[in-house]
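Field: COMPLEX_INPUT
Field: COMPONENT_COUNT = two
Field: RESIDUE_TOTAL = 996
Field: MODE = joint
Values follow.
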Amino acid sequence: MLALSKYVLIILSLVLIIRCIRSMLSDRYEPEIWAYLRYGETTYTLTHWETIIGRSLNADVRVVSPGVGRVHAVLRRNDKGRWRVYDIFSKGGVWIKSVKAGPEGLPVENGDVINVGGEKLRFREVTLSKREKLESKRTVAGLGISPAVTLLELTVFQLCLLLQHYFSAEGDTLRAIALAFVALIALEWICYNAMRVINRSGFEIETLAFYLTSIGMSVVASSAPEDMFKQILLTIAAVVLFVLLGWWLRKLDRAMSARFSVAVISVLLMLVNIVFSDALLGARNWLNFAGFSFQPSELVKVGYIYVGASTLDKLFRRRNLYMFILFSTFCVVSLALIGDFGTAFIFFVTFLVISFLRSGSVATVLLAVTGAGLAGFLAVSVRPYIARRFSTWGHVWDDVYGAGFQQSRAMSAAASGGLYGKGAGGGWLKDIFAANTDMVFAMVCEEQGLIIGVIMVLAVLVLAFFAVRTARQGRSAYYSIAACAAMSMLLVQLGMNVFGSLDILPFTGVTFPFVSKGGTSLLSCWMLMAFIKSADNRRDASFAVRSAAQDEPDDGEDEDLSSWEVWQPRKK
Amino acid sequence: MLLIAALVICGMVTYLLRYVDHGKEWALYFSRANSGSTGQLVDRNGITLAYFNGVDNYFSPDRITRAANYHVTGDYWGRTGTGILSRYWNDMQGFSLLTGTTRKEDSLLTLCIDARLNDQIYLSLGEESTGCMLVCNYRTGELLGMVSTPSVDPIDGEGAVRDGAFINRCLSASYTPGSIFKLVTAAAAIENLPNLSQRTWYCEHEVKIAGVPITCMADHYTQTFEQALANSCNVAFAQIAVELGQSTMIQYVTDYGFLSGHSIDGIPTVKGNYPTEFVGDPETGWSGIGQSTDLVCPYSMLRFLCAVANGGTLVEPHILQNDTPAITQLVNPNTADRLGQMMNYNAVEHYHAETMFPGMTVCAKTGTAELGDGTSHSWFVGFLADADHPYAFVTLVERGGFGITAAGSVASEVMQWAVENLDA
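Field: COMPLEX_OUTPUT
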């Protein structure tokens, strides 16, 4: 029975990941069409909410003329379907009907002629009825590969895991384990049905996240069954936060306007962390209250992505850039100060990714300088740490009772699982300290086998590739940047976790997304998924994306004077 | 971002390749007590030296046996790399890349070693000594005895362990050989110097080679080749080495395997040393009598002696039974015979063979390897020319003084015990 369940788990994992890959990565590129810009003889189709007009090769609408700057103007549609054009520090200026546009933009109506540095572009909006027609031609997500069937496979997978725990768990812990798994299954089906109710059919991201979460659940059941109840509560909380954040991100203006508040909250969280945290294992990144230990830096990850991403019209403003640089520096420096170098490094790499995605001319220079500065700072402050970790790196077998204690055991356990594993609860690594966090990959390999270990890594890779694909047709740069940055963050984290424990990289003690035990980490991973959901604008795919064919509510509010706008001094 | 993904994929591939390569090694390193396998390690008479029942690991109940055989068995924690457990433990466990560790029932490793002989060697050497002894059946290649002191009681995990106790001196150390090296020089002389039987060497305490004096323990005056070896005359052998020349000496040292590491059923031994850069005549003289920078691993000397004792044919020593040993012609048969006769002459004329080795036909050579600080390693090496008791032996007592007194008496006790108690 146990032996059979091992193979069933592997087959289900394989089928599940293949279905997700086919569903997520083999869709054709089907952009949404929002408007047209006619320049001379050429008609440009606007497939995003934000369009760069300029001389640059990277511009969406390329206008080659001496009066036009490299990035001259941004044409942007808001949630309500209103279009504005923004002048991005151009020398030639942007006019509509001889009104000059400033950095705060100028409304564009259907049929308007936009004068960009002397060149004339005619704007034509796609009407709602036309959009409905266009939308009906796009493929509905999940049409070919039913998400319900995939989810059903996941359910069987979870039941098999539960079965394995039935054989290995101690009597009184089994109830809690069973309860947690049943609750998890209920949770995912509630999510699925809720999504069907609002007529959405893309559930692959959630399925993969639930897949990883259930492996994480199994890890907790093996290594710390007394925490099962806490784990399921946290999982429910994580999914609720995921839905809330996804919902919040539906409205881009709302999301953008809250960036400053999020930045402030993140800074406060970091400060609280620096002041009040307990030192645990060298890194002071834990806060304890009400029986929950809490890692503020995990939540700041979400805040960092939230603040780091931006719509194009704001992206090129200096103020925005300074803000981002300041915020990044603050995050990396404070993480280094509390000794959490692993997370500091994750932030640093994410910073590089966001910088790359943002890259504009001035921006590139400043970002490069900041990048170099942060790298230098990290290198200096991390030196003693590096010296210690790096001296062990690659030599863990020389000192298996000292510096190489954890990695050598992780590698040994991972290898002793073979391809099929020892069954949930059947390994020995679970009794070693940090097996369910830093060495979780090894623990999964030992209990579930190398195949599932690899599929676990593959699942995160699939999400990452999906983020890259979907970013191309994202409505706003905000969503695209956020999705890519979020996945980069998770990928780096995964790499450091897996390869750190296998002695391919130095051991840093960061978590494996979704799988490592740790409540705050689980919350942040699920919340990061919301960014990917909000970028997933396949037809009817995501609850975090409003339907393209949906009429925008017109409540007559033209000006979006947000806190961000107020904070930002206008340019004379 | 795709770059990060690519790096993650590369890392994963790296791991998978390493897993295929080292998976077994890794898995069994800590899974030893966890695989649930059972098995045991027994000596040639079926005495259990180590066993494990899937839950716990055990050694012999007798403390002396545990310590005497420690360097043979090794331990479950791999503290001495040359032990059988260190080398063969993984083979006594189940592992496959597909299924990971598996249970393996009742694996049995039978050794050529005689645990009682090891006990005797250990007692003869003395627990407080620093030294080692090897005994090998030169006809079959079975390694009967191998003890290194100081030793370790493997179940006394926390007890104080003497410095260097984890080193098996028989295999993992090489020493200044002193006069036992004259056997090698003699073998080279037999094959390369014409009219050897008619020649004599004159010794009056010292000979100057290119102006550098090489001294002897006594005045041996005029002596034949046989007498020179029996006298262990430095004057004679330094001159012989110079006459042979450094390159001829290097060739013989190399051919006899003193400069290579060997393998006893996969357990590696260290290599020795001989000056191979040009050193000039005085150093050639010194190195011909086992001084200079000469180093010999006791095991290499045992191999050489086994070949000499067996008419030049080496049956490769081995420690696991059911092993078909390799057979090589290490020494020219005539050379081996003549060297054997000379060693017997040594024993009879100089080592009180009739009292030290009563009733045995013993062929031996002593060595008193001066270390330059007033102390000497004491060597006693040889074999019994006896079809019923075909044992070759190497005995070494570190800083033990004269070869005949320290190592010689150990060899004497052990060989007497062996002849009485062992059936070849």
